[in-house]
Amino acid sequence: MSPDPASYRLTTGVRRDVSYSQYASRQLVTWTFHSQPGDQALPLLVARYGARLDAYGRTPAGRPCPLTVGLEATPGSPKPVAGSVGLRVSYDDGATWHAVRVAEGRATFTPSASARFVSLRATGRDQAGNTVDQTVIRAFGVK
Predict the structure, then answer these.
(1) In the prediction, which pLDDT does 6 show?
(2) What pLDDT is stored for residue 2 in this prediction?
(3) How far is CA 25 from each of CA 9, 129, 141, rounded to the nearest angstrom?
């Protein structure tokens, strides 16, 4: 990293193919962040989700699915000062995305009757201008 304050962009992705789970088969995260000499940790944001799922990690098709979504800091970095969070969902492994309204950290969407999985794509920005674009393909199932 530069010895002067600077802006950076970091992208990472992972593909997972395991016999014991169909969930989180792909993940892609892109961060933009500002850093300066002496920073103890990179100020990276992470989207965290919360949904009521059954014991098999599924939500019912055709019914509203409430979800909490928020931004957290990676361990050791400063807590993010409130910013904005956006959310999109996909029922076809990310081929198409549907915007979902997020208000006060809560969102609700209704998986289609034909959906087998829900993929999530969250975008966030803190007041310092750090951003995250986080995609989880097959975040959870639909029954």
Answers:
(1) 87
(2) 55
(3) 24, 30, 12
> What pLDDT sits at residue 76?
81
Asked whether residue 1 is assigned to any structural domain, the reply reads no
User: Is residue 128 a part of any domain in this protein?
Assistant: yes
Structural contact between residues 47 and 30, judged by C-beta atoms closer than 8 angstroms: no
In order of 13, 47, 87, the CA distances from 109 in angstroms are 26, 17, 10
Q: Is residue 25 part of a domain?
A: yes
CB distance 76 to 88 below 8 Å: no
In angstroms, rounded to a whole number, what is the distance separating the alpha carbons of residues 29 and 48? Answer: 13
- pTM, rounded to two decimals: 0.90
Q: Where are the beta strands (DSSP E) in 56-130?
A: 58-59, 65-73, 84-90, 98-100, 106-109, 117-125
Pairing between β-strand 58-59 and β-strand 131-142 as defined by DSSP bridges: parallel
Range of the domain at 87: 6-142
Q: Please list the ranges in the chain whose pLDDT falls under 50.
A: none
**Could you tell me which residues are beta bridge partners of residue 50?**
68
Q: What is the CATH number of the domain that holds 33?
A: 2.60.40
At 98 the three-state DSSP class reads strand
